[in-house]
Amino acid sequence: MTMRGNGGMYRIGVDVGGTFTDFVMVDTEGGPTAFHKVPSTPDDPSRAIASGIVEMLELNAVSPEDVGYVGHGTTVATNMVIERRGVPTGLLTTRGFRDVLAIGRQTRPSLFDWSVRKPEELVERHRRVEVEERLDKTGTPLTAPDLEAVETLVVQLRDSGVKAIAVGFLHSYRNPAHERAVRDLIARVAPDLYVSISSEVVAEFREYERFSTTVLNAYVGPRTQKYLHRLREKIAACGIRVEPLTFHSNGGLLPVQTVEELPVLTCLSGPAAGVIGSARIGAEIGESEIITFDVGGTSTDVSLITGGRAQFTSSRLVAGHPVRMPMVDIHVIGAGGGSIARLDDAGALKVGPMSAGAMPGPISYLRGGTEVTLTDANIVLGRLNPVALLEGRMKVDRGLAYAAIRSQIADPLGLSVEEAAYGIVSIATANMSRAIRSVSIEHGHDLGAFTLFAFGGAGPLHAADVAEECGLDKIVVPQEPGTLCARGVLLSDLSRDYVRTALIRVSSESWADLVALGAELSEAGRAWLATEAIPHSGQELLFTLDARYRGQSHYIPVPLDDLRGDLLDDFVGRFHRAHADQFGYSLDGRDIEVVNVRLKAVCHVRKGESTAPATGTSLDAARIETRQVYFGPDHGWVETPIYRRALLPAGTPFAGPAIVEEMSGTTVILPSQRAEVDGLGNIHIALER
Fold this sequence. Notes:
Blueprint: E1 10-16, E2 20-27, E3 34-39, H1 45-59, E4 67-73, H2 76-82, E5 89-94, H3 100-103, E6 128-131, E7 134-135, E8 141-143, H4 147-159, E9 164-168, H5 177-189, E10 194-197, H6 198-201, H7 207-237, E11 245-248, E12 252-254, H8 256-261, H9 269-285, E13 290-295, E14 300-306, E15 309-310, E16 312-313, E17 316-318, E18 321-323, E19 327-328, E20 330-333, E21 339-343, E22 349-355, H10 374-380, E23 388-389, E24 394-395, H11 398-413, H12 417-439, E25 451-455, H13 459-470, E26 474-477, H14 484-490, E27 494-505, H15 511-531, E28 539-549, E29 556-560, H16 568-583, E30 592-603, H17 619-622, E31 623-630, E32 637-644, E33 654-655, E34 658-662, E35 665-669, E36 673-677, E37 683-687
Parallel strand pairs: 1-4, 4-11, 5-6, 5-9, 9-10, 13-25, 25-26, 32-34
Antiparallel strand pairs: 1-2, 2-3, 7-8, 11-12, 13-14, 14-15, 14-20, 16-19, 17-18, 21-22, 23-24, 26-37, 27-30, 28-29, 28-30, 31-32, 33-36, 34-35, 36-37
């Protein structure tokens, strides 16, 4: 095949999911956008990335030398924690704080279920070692670490099989000197050990969250390094001359070196890319109030966008372990296309959270799967193509799925096969709807003001049912929805986050101290930006102050355009409004305390367009066929038109029921709904009035 090299620069975005790995390729000179999808390779995700890139380049006749950018979102670090596949890790901590990880907080995972237990610590107690050292709360040294004694401890940990060491000392967020001295010692006496120090991972107070995050970073560090090394080798072997960038959880990209040092930043990176992509596309079509609905093979990820901005949080749990990092606020449940449907011990039908994953996958995928999944139910109901998916590239067998649902679900419950399959879909719909309510109604938001933004391989398949269940009036389905997380990678900038604990009561006198702390963070951010060789015009520094009323335990983030001496009144006003928005009240006369100062250093990069305008001529031309589709007991089996997404014309409304197929997803439009494609190729679905 002749490769084209027209002087343009191609940008590739990749998202590694539990079932599929997705690709989007954009020509910055304005050529067509390419979308691609291959099964994931969980044993080594870099294999699917490399093979998928090669296939996409060949299919589109693009030379590897013309690729100037590769960015990818990955769940490698998250999966290592969930599956406990990190390396044996040790912890060096201040005397008296050995059991901080075990004690945790005075909270239970499930208050009334005594069978639920907190996860086991990632560092066994015999590998949590105390060091004689101490700083006071201001960071003033009280006892310097005895480095000879520390050397003995490090050698003992190394000889016990430890491959990584986390260092977490009391009050090191105020003064990192003791941690740095121990880090340098480890580098001398045990250079093969991976080392994480808490003052560089997360320089915040509260030992439990800081130690947990540092331990997680060390636990996944060595294997993340190996994964990135393999990925770099494979991408270079493809003939691509640039190193891959990695999407992180706060909505930006990082170079390989930074990810190797701070792999914990990539937890939940793939879903975050979809939220950032949704916000960007929403801005293009005038939608600022959005609920993102990302359904993949394993999970459903839901997030809120208000005022055109994604919502962020500074703390999350990963497999029950606290991670203290700024990240896009995403609610995740175990409901996806691969979710397993089964009867529990009481004979009740359950769907999820266990998933068939990429291997063996659903029964209908012909890969040896034996348990009924949500995908199998959709194929039996005619909602998914009963012959092949991915525009014919992936054969499926409806007969196998039909027989399995009959034997495993329908016959034991005394139902017909379509009733059992529809029951599976209905239960999944209820689970997904609860996730949407948890990020909206439970936080005081009116669902009627939001648009459901459906993507992921199975998001558009279930969005219509979920919208009816939740009372949402509008749905938007972007082009190639199954690849939107990969597309979100292309719509993002390079960025890195910095934080310092302040614990300063706000006043006209103390504001100067906060400005000085912001200047220190700015210096660190600019130093990092300089290493990326980005012109000054492409750089931006964004501040956030974590603040609370004096006496409160919790705090809220207050974004600022800048941190200058003349912005005190602006900050105070913003804090009162933010507190009222989140909790329903403000205390205008109460003193305010700034807990943390945060900085996000951003490198804006050239993105190019990642959409193609709708070019279809008529609905008749877009219609592929009609087939029988089951829409529940009220409608039964209905002869339904099947449309090819790429051929749908813009501005021509059509009524449901209808099915729209494309390479990376299938969109269902119910009998009570109406759809129309806009000029940018997005499908808008609304209830018929």
